[in-house]
Structure formats: C-alpha cells, structure tokens
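[job 4417] fold queue: 2 targets
>>> target A
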Amino acid sequence: MSKLLDDVVRELSRLPGIGRRTALRLAMHILRQREDDVASMTQAIDDFRTGIRHCARCNNLSDNEFCEICSDPNRDHSTICVVEQVGDVMSIEKTGQFRGLYHVLGGVISPMSGIAPSDLKIDLLINNIAAGGVHEIILAISTTVEGETTLFYILNRLKQFNDLKITTIARGIGFGDEIEYADELTISHALLNRREVEPPAGV
C-alpha cells in the first residue's frame, strides 16, 4: 500500500466507529473527488477545529460566546434541560417539543474511565441556577449505570435550591439506551411525560 494512502487510512480509522476497511473506502472516495471539493472539506474541518467555542452559559458548541439557543429571546429561559452531549441537544431539538434552554454536561461520571464530577460542567449549571430566574431543571440523562450515577450526584447538588422544580424525562427511553440514538417519537413522548423527582433524603 502507498505510504500516503496508508497514512490517510490510519488517520481516518482513528475516528469513532471507523475501522480500517471503512477508512480505506473513505480514502478512495476522497481520491475520486475534485481537488477543490477536497480542499473545501479540509478547510471546513480546519475552521471548525480552530474556530468552534463552547457557550459560556450552557457549554453547547457555538461560533460566539453564547450559542444561538441561549441568545434567543423567544426561548423559555426559566427551564433548563440537562443533557450529556451536544448530540443530545440536536436530537431533542429535532422533536420541536422543547423551547427552553439546555445545559451540556460534557459526559457522565465514570470512575472506570477516570471521569469525575469535576471533569463535567456541573459547577457551571449550579452557578447558572444560583444566578436566579431558573424555575425548572429537566434531567435528560441516559439510563446507563453511569447516567444514573450522574443523575444521583446532580440531584444531591440541587438540594440547596428549595423552590426549584426538578423533573426527569419519562423512561420511554429504555435502560441502557443513549438519547443521541433514540428516535424522535420516543424522545417526544419522554419529554411530554417527564415526572418530578425529589432529591434523596439524608444524604
């Protein structure tokens, strides 16, 4: 195999879900593309990597200090939907059922993977609530073991806000499923049928 081809295949295969065979097919597809099309693609990737920012309020991806959702005056700024990843925001937005704001944690607590609460944007969430104006928190976290651990930790952190309504999305999303891969109808039902939860007592 050509060293140049091997280098491209190696780099493409480092992407999640891409094995060497898929990487080879992608490399050959790129080779068949016009040079200006490939240049546009690589420029877009470079611009994305160097120019993308995290919203200062919700940690969503943004071109500016604040993302479009947080900057939209027509959104309900008193309701925040807490999710794990940016992909979860995109999935929920597709349903058209939620008009509040989001908070992207950046993952879930996972001691096995070395991810502690301090590695997530939980303190930013707490600070946003403490600033006032937030009446409801919707915890839209995947029902994995790590997701449940994260949910329990956040509930404990939210105990300090006595007047805050805390809900979780209805468990229309099966245990072990990730929101990013759930269909739009399932997410819609889960949001519409969310339930209020109480922080654990005596912890």
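>>> target B
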Amino acid sequence: MRRGLSLLEILVVIAAIGVLMAILLPALSGTRRSANEIKSLANIRTIAQTFDAYIDEHGAYPAASSGWALHPDWAEPPAAIIWRDVWLTDRLWPIVMHDLAPWPENYQSWLSPGADSERFTSLWSGQGYTVTSTGLTSYRYSNSFLARPRVWSGSGGDYDESLIRAARRADVRQPSQKVLLYDTEVAYLTPEQMERNPRRAVGLADGSASIRRDAEAVEPVANPLRSGYTPRMYHDTPNGTHGVDVR
C-alpha cells in the first residue's frame, strides 16, 4: 500500500516551488521588458521614417503653433487644433504631420507599449476641441530642433522669438549622437522599476534607435526663451542641434 506524503515532504515541495518561482519570475520579467523595449524601438524607427518624409517635403523639421487632424468619425473637412506655444510641438507633432501619417492608422505606433490607447478619443471635448495636456504620443520630440542652436549656447546676449526656427538636416552636426525622439512614458515599467533602473528607447537624428540609461544622457542647459522652465534631458541640449545628447 502506498503511503501519503508526510507534512515534512509537503513543506519541502512547497519550498522547492518557492525557490523555482524566485528564480523564474525575474527571468520572465526581464524577457517581457526586453520584448517591450524592442517594440518601443520599432515604434521610434517608424516615427523617424515619418519625420524623414516630412523633412523631404518641407525642407526642415516640424515646428508649429497650430495644426489639424481628422477624427475618424467625422466625414466633413478636418477641424483646426490650435496651440500658442511652439515648444508644445514636442508632444503635438502628430497633428503637424497628419497629412503624412493620419493618426487613425498610425497612433498605435506612437504609444509606448502598455500606454493608454484611448487617449486619442479624449482630444475633443465640449464645443471647442481642446487638446489635453497629456499629449498625443509617448514619444517626445526634442525641443532643440525648434530653434537656433544659439538658444542653448549659454553665450548671453539678446534672446527673442526671432531665434525660433525649425532646424534643417544640415544644422545637425552629429546626427548619431543627437536625440530626435525618446520614450517619455516607458509605460511598460512600474514607477519602482523606473526609479531602480531608469532607461528608455531613444531615436537619433540619423534614424537609428537604441536603449539608453537616463544617467548617461548629457546634462541639459537652460532655455532662455522659457522662463521658469526646468531644463529637460534630450530637449535642452547644450548648443542645440550643434550639440550631442549621448556619448
């Protein structure tokens, strides 16, 4: 007659399962993270292709204080969406480039893996169509492409709105080290994971993309055209498009 398991044997089995779980869960988490990083990199490369098409058509990187987009439920001509701050192009670039990449067909590639895919449906509210402050995309476009490099040179002198001008390809001196876009949300990571090991997908001006640690980014400098504004990595690049964000 077979005997049953003793309490001690059961406890040993439970302990063994616990050890296996402790070993396997971090590995599974790492695999999931790697898969999401690859997807985020693929999104950035897709966006970079749209930027290239925009530059080919307009001769410069996008920089605007107004634009339009067509809601998929609207059959009539598109509504205007207006904002008054050119620096908001960093999060509203999908509107500027709507003709090249209409958002109904493309917005999924503009979101970090795990980000809220319903955010586009909340853009229009009330009688006017007010863009929410969250931005359209997880991938922020560097502000340093929106003005002349002297803005971030620290050279002093007069700084005024005349320095705002969309950069051209020739303005980017080291495209393999100048960040064009980056995953600002990294939505697939928890706040604790970001605090413990902050890294994200970045896209460079040469069209490449890679995973970079925040600690490796070049220290940002003040933008004198934005008083009271805290400089941000990848946006406020020393010497703007003449400078570099990554080494």
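[job 4417] complete. Note on B: Residues 125-129 have pLDDT under 50 and may be disordered.
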